[in-house]
């Protein structure tokens, strides 16, 4: 397993070792001990699974403290553009984002700590998206940021007219008007 840092401190790309032959493939999709050995201390307690069609954009979502969630996300069918935005006030990368393609083919995962908004858009005909969370869902603490906030300037890599949003995500405010309570800690 390769653990690769991204330009956003504490966000990591996880590349599993894939063993493939004429029968198919095998890989270890999660190993708590290997993350611990790399200094990444997470206790995941909930798994989520979504299926979406091309153009569906879910995000940008977060849960405020004390119900914030770290996530380990991956795709098991299809592909997405996955996006994280640093919403930790006083962070050197505050309101900067990182994006990458996650797919069943590349088998990459993204480890997203608390203090980041997260979203993805489906690039393939359909997609199945899995993610582990280190805290339970809490409706009262959920928040969102508009996917098209001009201050974030995210290139979602599909035409605007193809984007499909939930009613709830259509109501997300800009980052400037969003309510998040994360403070950056250099430690």
Write a concise keyword list for the protein shown above.
mainly beta; Jelly Rolls; 6-stranded antiparallel sheet; 187 residues; 5-stranded antiparallel sheet
If you had to describe this structure to a student in words, what would you say it looks like?
- The protein has helices spanning 32-37, 167-170, and strands at residues 2-5, 12-15, 18-21, 24-27, 46-53, 57-63, 71-77, 79-86, 88-89, 97-103, 109-112, 116-122, 126-133, 142-144, 182-183.
- The protein is mainly beta and 187 residues long.
- It has one domain: Jelly Rolls (Sandwich).
- The protein is globular.
- The chain starts with a strand and ends with a strand.
- The model has no long low-confidence stretch (mean pLDDT 96).
Strand order of the largest sheet: 1-2-11-7-13-5
**Do you know the CATH topology?**
Jelly Rolls
As a percent range, the share of strand residues is 35-45%
How many beta-strand runs? 15
Residue stretches low in confidence (pLDDT < 50, at least 5 long) are none
Helix/strand/pairing category:
mainly beta
Number of domain modules = 1
Percent helix range? under 10%
The dominant shape is globular
Please give the structural blueprint.
Blueprint: E1 2-5, E2 12-15, E3 18-21, E4 24-27, H1 32-37, E5 46-53, E6 57-63, E7 71-77, E8 79-86, E9 88-89, E10 97-103, E11 109-112, E12 116-122, E13 126-133, E14 142-144, H2 167-170, E15 182-183
Give a brief rundown of this model.
The protein has 187 residues and is mostly beta strands. The protein contains two helices and 15 strands. The protein has a single domain, classed as Jelly Rolls, CATH 2.60.120.
């Amino acid at each position: 397993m390769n653990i690769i840092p991204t330009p956003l401190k504490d966000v990591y790309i996880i590349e599993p070792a894939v063993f493939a032959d004429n029968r198919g493939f095998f890989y270890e999709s999660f190993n708590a001990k290997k993350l611990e050995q790399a200094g990444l201390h997470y206790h995941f307690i909930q798994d989520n699974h979504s299926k979406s069609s091309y153009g569906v954009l879910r995000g940008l979502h977060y849960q405020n403290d004390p119900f914030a969630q770290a996530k380990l996300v991956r795709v098991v069918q299809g592909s997405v553009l996955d996006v994280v935005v640093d919403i930790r006030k006083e962070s050197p990368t505050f309101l900067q984002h990182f994006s990458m393609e996650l797919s069943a083919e590349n088998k990459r995962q993204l480890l997203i700590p608390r203090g980041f908004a997260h979203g993805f858009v489906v690039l393939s005909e359909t997609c199945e998206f899995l993610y582990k969370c280190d805290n339970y869902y809490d409706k009262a603490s959920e928040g969102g940021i508009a996917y098209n906030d001009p201050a974030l300037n995210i290139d979602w890599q599909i035409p605007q007219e193809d984007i499909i949003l939930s009613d709830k995500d259509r109501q997300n405010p800009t980052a400037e008007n969003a309510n998040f309570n994360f403070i950056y800690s250099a430690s």
